[in-house]
Amino acid sequence: MAFHYPNGTPYNNHEAPKSKKQVKKQKSIQFGKRGMDFEEEINKSNAYYLSRNTAVIHKKPTPVQIVKVDYPSRSAAVIKEAYFRQASTTDYNGVYNGFYLDFEAKETKNKTSFPFKNFHQHQIDHIRQCLAQKGICFVLLWFSSLNRCFFFSGEALVTYWAEQETTGKKSLPLAIIEKNGIEIQIGIAPRIPYLDAVEQYIQSKKGVAMNDN
Amino acid sequence: MAFHYPNGTPYNNHEAPKSKKQVKKQKSIQFGKRGMDFEEEINKSNAYYLSRNTAVIHKKPTPVQIVKVDYPSRSAAVIKEAYFRQASTTDYNGVYNGFYLDFEAKETKNKTSFPFKNFHQHQIDHIRQCLAQKGICFVLLWFSSLNRCFFFSGEALVTYWAEQETTGKKSLPLAIIEKNGIEIQIGIAPRIPYLDAVEQYIQSKKGVAMNDN
């Protein structure tokens, strides 16, 4: 049941390429029917932003516990036994114009709501910790059946997550995401221009802060 | 010459435990004579800062290209073939009181200077990119034979790196590090209180910014 990646192919992102099976085993991510690999498009958008000096955002490597390494020659260490580890953070972070950005990218085939099971407790905890340090935290939500993408703030996610812990609700209704989130129009370059939504969010926070004073 | 970590020990950081051999192969890090594992102490300091809600700083997992995975059972995917990949960033980043922090930890047995070979071009490039986004970038330098630790700013490192590219100098003299860096006194909890130096650096930058206006 082992699978193989093509050898010698250059990859532009940090991440080892993933087969659909591996991704499913590891993270239960479902790819959209229409063939957009959401994570891959975000990685490309990050590469675009980096090339334009707009932001420095990287996906974190998959955490792996290495148990056994062979050294057949000095130049080629081969990992012969390793295990996937649970991450303690979200997948993406970096810096944009002095702001610390931290986010997860999630997708669903659902058409009317986003299942909470796509999020993990450690991600919520990490978002809470980063918010306490004045980081800009959010999730990018991709409704693959609708071809719609949303920015949803960490504050809002944490609030609704706490709510579902008491109400037992299994998902976040699309109507709430439409109302509290910011829709991202899929483009060409970058494909997922999420920094526009981030900028809008930062400006709206400034407005709130000024009103508070 | 490989050493082993005790099995079953819980690790608080993301990183898989490394054998000395693996670390040497991968990063050419030399451990200090007096037994302080510099990276491990920084990871513990980060855990301390996280537990006190002072900052959220994590070491990035080692990038690994996964080639072959076996699934003997649903719960235990075993990576059977994988390779170390070159990182594109520094090892540590996170958020502290609204600031994006980004740094590398390096050590030397030298007593009078810090060799430039401890740094890699991709780390310098990444630091330049993050500085352009107003991130707080630095390196933590550990002189294991002297038991002395320094904060050295990304701006200064980038400047001296560019200089050595033309002069061919092989190392950064301790005198320059003493003059331009901030010495960190090794403590108990956290062992490496580097955020004190970061705070001092941030305050000094504010002073410069005010003088500029």
Provide the helix percentage of chain A: 25-40%
In total, the number of strands of chain A is: 10
State the end-to-end distance of chain A: 61 Å
| CATH fold topology of chain A | Trna Endonuclease, Chain: A, domain 1
Share of residues in strands of chain A: 25-35%
Q: Which sequence of strands runs across the widest sheet of chain A?
A: 1-4-5-7-8-10
Largest interface: A-B, 58 and 57 residues
Secondary-structure content class of chain A: alpha+beta
Radius of gyration of chain A: 19 Å
Overall geometry of chain A comes to: globular
Largest sheet of chain A: 6 strands, mixed
Mean pLDDT across all amino acids of chain A: 85
Description:
Two copies of one chain form a homodimer. With 213 residues, chain A is of the alpha+beta class. Chain A has a single domain (28-60, 89-208), classed as 3-Layer(aba) Sandwich (Trna Endonuclease, Chain: A, domain 1). Chain A contains six helices and ten strands, in the order H-H-E-E-E-E-E-E-H-E-E-H-E-H-E-H. Chain A has helices spanning 20-27, 38-51, 121-132, 154-167, 174-180, 194-212, and strands at residues 56-59, 64-73, 76-84, 92-96, 99-108, 113-115, 136-143, 148-153, 171-173, 182-184. In chain A, the strands form three sheets. In chain A, strands 1-4-5-7-8-10 form a six-stranded mixed sheet, with helices on both faces. Chain A has a two-stranded antiparallel sheet with strand order 2-3. In chain A, helix 3 (121-132) packs across helix 4 (154-167). Mean pLDDT of chain A is 85; it is low at 1-34. Chains A and B meet through helix 1, strand 2, strand 3, strand 4 and strand 5 of A and helix 1, strand 2, strand 3, strand 4 and strand 5 of B. Chains A, B: Its EC number is 3.1.21.10. Chains A, B: Keywords: Cytoplasm, DNA damage, DNA recombination, DNA repair, Endonuclease, Hydrolase, Magnesium, Metal-binding, Nuclease. Chains A, B: GO terms for molecular function: crossover junction DNA endonuclease activity; magnesium ion binding; nucleic acid binding. Chains A, B: InterPro entries: Resolv_RecU (IPR004612), Restrct_endonuc-II-like (IPR011335), tRNA_endonuc-like_dom_sf (IPR011856).
